[in-house]
Amino acid sequence: MVETTAPDMIMVTGDITSEKENFTAFKTFCSYMEKLGVPWGFVFGNHEGLDIQYEENEVLDPEKIADRQTLSNYLESLPNCIYEAGDENTDGTGNYYYNVTDDNGKVITSLIMMDSHSYDEENNGYDHFHDNQIAWYENTIKSIAKEVNGDEAKVVPSLAFFHVPMQEYMTAYDEAKGADNKLWGFRFPNEDGTPAVDDQMFEKMVELGSTKGCFAGHDHMNNFSVMKDGIRLTYGLSCDHNIYLVPFRGGVLINVKNDGTFTTQHLIRHRGQNTITIGKEQ
Questions:
Q1: Which of 3, 96, 224, 270 is 20 to 30 A off residue 131, Cα-Cα?
Q2: CA-to-CA distance for 60 and 67, rounded, in angstroms?
Q3: Would residue 272 be called left, alpha or beta, if left means φ above 0 and alpha means ψ between -120 and 50 degrees?
């Protein structure tokens, strides 16, 4: 996909490994990404370092098994990776942003990366964005607007990247059945990995008017892109080789325009053929 499209940046939306020796797998993946020579960003999924089962009195090899903080430190050490651990007073690991500029250095779009956490044991499901993350998002959007346009109300267009999709992904798809705002793809039966609690992140995005697109991973089978309240909600296609009978494997090419608008093209990777089909621009 990278060779075919020659992207300026790559965004990875988590779940790189669920292996017990997660640091070994993580370093293998990151070494591959670094060799591509393309700037890349990362948000944590719900599996990195959190599903490991330890034996009683087991001695852990720190070169092979790492907690999320160690993985975060490793990401920050990589020359081509734009990842940042983020504000230590905000819940999650890896809430950060990156400003995309045109050839003259003008900021045209901000990329907002957020940690969607892992499991919500209290509510028996996946976790959600916490209140202080929503406050961080609002402060970030306003501070970028102040820096770029001199007025926190004059927001800069932005795109948001996280792993677990917000509940609005499902409601938007259901609302769009047979409508024009269902742009591409399918929701598969019983494939709903949204949080157990409906947070207020989407409402805050609509209120501020900056974020025009969200990109999530997590649900291996779902691959749709749909509009809701002026925001496009998109699944990145799964790249996995050995989990689920995924109908389409690949990625999403995001084309950011100089006026801050964007389009997408789905990339379908043909397994075993080394070929890519590039979908129409939407």
A1: 224
A2: 11
A3: left
